[in-house]
Design goal:
The chain is an alpha+beta fold. Helix content is about 50%, strand content about 15%. The chain contains 25 helices and 24 strands. Strands 1, 2, 3, 4, 5, 6, 7, 8, 9, 10, 11, 12 and 13 form a 13-stranded mixed β-sheet that branches. Strands 16-17-22-19-21-20 form a six-stranded mixed β-barrel. Helix 2 runs antiparallel to helix 9, helix 2 (about 25-50) crosses helix 11 and helix 3 packs across helix 6. The model is unreliable at about 405-415 (pLDDT under 50).
Length: about 800
Amino acid sequence: MPNWLRDLPQDLRYAGRLLRKSPGFAATAVFTLALGIGANTALFSVVNGVLLNPLPYPHSEQLLAVYAKTPGFEQAPIVYLNFLDWQHDTKTLSSMATYRNQNYNVTGAAEPERVSGYQISAGFFSTLGVQPILGRAFRSDDDQLGAAPVVILGGGVWRRKFGSSNDVLGKSLTLNGTSYQVVGVMPPGFTFYGQDRDVYTPIGQWNDPSFRDRRISVSAHAFGRLKLGVTLPQAKADMDLIAANLAAAFPVADKEAGITLVSMKEDIVGNVQPFLLVLLAAVGFLLLIACANVANLLLARSMGRSREFAVRASLGAGHLRVIRQLLAESVSLAALGGILGLLFAYCGVKAVLNTLPGTFPRVEEIALDGRVLLFTLVLSLFAAIVFGLAPALRSSRINVMEILKESGRGSMGGRHRLQGIFVISEVALSLVLLIGAGLMLRSLAALWRVHPGFNPSHAITFNLSMPSSSATTSADTRARLRQFDDKLSSIPGVQAVSVTLGSRPMIHDSSLPFWIEGRPKPANLNEMPQSMFYLVEAGFERAMGITLERGRFVTPQDNENAPVVIDIDDVFARTWFPNENPIGKRVHLEEFDVQAEIVGVVGHIKQWGLGTDQKSAIEAQFFYPFMQLPENLMRMAADGAAVVLRTSGEPAAVMGPVRRAVEQIDARDVIYGVETMSQVIAGSFAARRLSMLLLGIFAALALVLSCVGIYGVTSYAVGQRTHEIGVRMALGAQRKDVLRLVLGEGARMTLVGVAAGVAAALGLTRLMASQLFGVSAQDPLTYAAVAIVLTLVALLACYLPSRRAVRVDPMVALRHE
């Protein structure tokens, strides 16, 4: 058996006795390590759940997201008829499926409830590789027009509506007035793209003319599974050939249209990877600072144990034996720090999970699993080596005769220099973290100053679902909407109201192709320009607080019997009418099959978020009167309309009267998705806000640890130089001279650390450039402010032990020596 292994139990027992004799030192070191290890473990659990774990489906690496590709859009929603052709013609995908969001009103014996749902094709679950826990998945004969309505339940609605009963199969559920027979139940916890749905219905049963129009996309999406042995480039080549064949067969609808394939995992994770890696680097810095702090503590402690090491050496202990003993102490500290760090991580992960919903994908997969526990173990061992090795090596190199001759007080210059190096490293790493947090803070401040194009104050929005049936006409829907407007407008405190559909700022986006009358008509849809569109009522301008720049806005007179009109935003005007007045010009809206006259120009709305409009493929916007919606589309409004209100007081306070008013109109109507527009804006940069919060916490911890390190080194240096200070003062040195001496040493360490930190930050902050807005990654104001603040705080940490130094009595110091 190797000597180190035989001696290990003895070394660990001795380390435990020493730590029990120094509870203050042990508690400080363990708590410092626990902060670093806990922060790293908590964030690694996020990275593990979001980036590293495979998707929760069998052989998930074979799953691909499938998008339509059009000019200006690499990843556009698909057209259902095109999907059917892709599914039939592909030679590289073993199966494909399509789906679209479709929420439902559940009515019947209980109070009406709005439930989330997907319309899915028959191969949806088999392509994912999952099956219902009860019953069956949809068959191809379910996925057809005229088939009997069937539904598969999600775990949530199975529990709420049917008490998780196993005899649910064959029972009926009324969705939007239609009775569906339950044929299956998905397992509780099943999610798709991070979302669990209440109900799944066959998409092929959707009897809407626009759904089967090759020119129109109705927000459907698709995915597929690669055949065994097929690579992604091979699948892309196959789908490119299919797209070319469709373009030749349907030149009006599919010319210049393509197909985009992307790994489903990559599609789900999106652009969150750089954000997480920046945070992981930040907590890595925090751990290094914690290790440097503990290393300084061990160095200071080892100086007081010089006589012990000298006696060990005189009795025959070699350098390696002393190093092994000191490393055993380091491992003991790291183990305790790792255990406490796991507790911190558990609390941190719970806090993250409460913060992240709606901000990160795959939040439900974040947990302290086996990989995270292994990471903590490895991290603890790494920390033990990092903070323990340098002090151990330094302490093993001692002059036995000198130490014994001078009763344990030997030359400490080399050790003090090593402590200084640790402090400089701490200051440099802290500066990088503080600069990162400062840049994120300035970025958020810049975002808050951006005008969204509307007035969020006292504005609130919500979704409204009104039950309809095949007998419901467009005239019925318009009449109900007018009744709804009148009822809500009469509520005290409501200043303006508008039903809306299509796009809603930072919530939902819809676009339409168009061409301008009097100019050459594009040959096909994909050559036509696109514009975001908002279906609005006359109250929308005031309810949203948008600015009318010229002309007029939609009025109540712009109804189904009047000529079609639209308002455009200033981006639309600048882009398509740069040197002329757009008022009176006519625009042909291809998918609505109408010509509309431009009657007004309004200010641009930041549809994509406060900081992202300039990166968007579509910025132009137009506003279309809700009541002039074509007859074949009007029925869709009843199921998925939204509402915006402006109030004189607190917006949330009117929702009680609003719900009562809606119930009086029709008890089956359902209101859901209530948000103030201020909440909508805040949610649009939730990830940036979370990034600033976490970086700020890490930077604050780093600053505290660095200052503790500076204080500890300066304080220890003062204690070691008590004799020297006494001699200086006995020879006439003034207190200010001693203060300058001690502060000067701390200032030198700080300034060197600041310089090194600035150099490191200039390179490292480029990694977070994509997360910034309105500020450069090398912003001089942030760098200067952080450097000054860190220097002042560090000098304050040096000043406290300096005050003790100037109070040294020369006679007492000399007599003590």
